[in-house]
Design brief:
Blueprint lengths: L3 E9 L5 E9 L2 E6 L4 E7 L2 E2 L20 E2 L5 E2 L3 E4 L2 E4 L8 E2 L12 E5 L7 E7 L10 E10 L3 E10 L3 E2 L3 E2 L17 E4 L1 E5 L12 E2 L11 E2 L9 H6 L3 E6 L9 E7 L6 E6 L3 E5 L8 E2 L5 E2 L6 E5 L14 E2 L5 E10 L3
């Protein structure tokens, strides 16, 4: 298959906004990115559809799972939606019980992004951008954000992020794709084998806010330093698993050998399909979410139902609630500086 990027037909969202998808194809892997939420709506590898999605772009509007979306300004949770920055108090409207989740009620996942550049082929990629004005969801400063999607010939999907602001603010960007390496409708992911390059994780309270502790994974069901089936310990009598209904936790990744270069964060493999996924990132954390709460029954692609544990997220990120935790890696972005991160999803097929 030749490398290419194809602009798809325009779609109309229920509120009248226009959006468009783009197909990126490269040597047996195809990805579809839609401007609504800068969202990965489809990913086909070795003939399998390996991310959850909907048939129509309008079905993503109002769905609670953030399927495939770019998340910002602040991925994950901020306690009470409140923090202080340079002595000034900031308030984000809560949208997840008492806390702010994924940027507040109207996050980047609900914006129609703009096309900034279309490469000559899939490896050069698609660059999309969004301007978040000063005060958007309570966050200070006007922020300019760009996300580049690209496909490499070795079966790697790259997602790169760049953000700049005109006032001190915070930023935490990620993608919320749900993976099932057996393909959509292939059952749950409990037999998928996972390895995470982390010696510690951040435990949470009853509302899934980090307690501030950085706890070693050794001797816990969170020890994925060697490959483990996800379902092997997901039902263990562990308070953290009980709180989340499974895994919904941030893992503290090992330091990179070369700062600023993506290093291995996780490996996922399906014993049924033989498909593997390696995640490399520049980010300090990885949120493992095993689809514990998919909300009300939702219609998936081709009439399927999005089910509990039907897929998992491997969200590369800074840590949850970092603005309130000075000992966590800082998420502060200041004028004149740039936030940059890159994550690679490398697919491996059994020969």
């Amino acid at each position: 298959m030749s490398s290419r990027i194809v602009a798809l037909e325009e779609d109309l969202l229920p509120d009248g906004r226009r959006t468009r998808g783009f197909l990126l194809a490269q040597d047996g892997i195809e990805a579809v990115v839609n401007l609504y939420g800068a969202r990965l709506t489809a990913l086909r590898v070795a003939g399998l559809s390996v991310v959850l999605g909907h048939d129509a772009i309008g079905d993503y509007v109002g769905e609670p799972g953030y399927l495939g979306a770019t998340i910002g300004r602040y991925a994950n949770r901020i306690v009470g939606g409140r923090f202080s920055l340079d002595g000034a108090k900031v308030a984000i409207p809560p949208n997840n019980g008492p806390n702010a989740l994924h940027g507040g009620p109207v996050g980047f996942d609900q914006a129609v992004w703009q096309v900034a550049a279309i490469g000559s082929d899939a490896e050069e990629g698609l660059l999309v951008s969004h301007r978040s004005e000063d005060g958007d969801q309570g966050f200070p400063g006007r922020m300019e954000v760009a996300v580049r999607y690209s496909l490499a010939p070795d079966g790697t999907l790259g997602i790169g992020y760049d953000a700049r602001a005109d006032r001190p603010t915070v930023v935490n960007l990620t993608n919320h794709a749900y993976f099932n390496l057996d393909g959509e409708g292939g059952g749950d992911i409990l037999d998928h084998v996972l390895e995470i390059g982390a010696e510690a994780f951040t435990p949470v309270d009853a509302t899934l806010i980090p307690t501030g502790e950085i706890r070693p994974v050794a001797g816990t069901p969170f020890d994925f330093r060697t490959p483990q089936p996800i379902g092997a310990r997901i039902g263990a009598p562990d308070e953290q698993l009980r709180i989340a209904g499974g895994y919904d936790h941030n893992f503290v990744l090992r330091e990179p050998a070369v700062p600023g270069m993506p290093r291995p964060a996780a490996r996922l493999a399906s014993p049924r399909s033989g498909l593997g996924l390696e995640v490399l990132t520049t980010e300090p954390g990885l949120q493992l979410y095993t689809g514990n709460v998919m909300g009300p029954p939702q219609r998936g692609r081709q009439g399927g139902t999005l089910r509990r544990h039907g897929a998992l997220c491997l969200e590369t990120q800074h840590f949850p609630d970092s603005p309130n935790r000075p000992h966590f890696p800082s998420t502060v972005l200041r004028p004149g500086a740039a936030f940059r991160s890159r994550t690679l999803y490398r697919f491996l097929t059994r020969r």
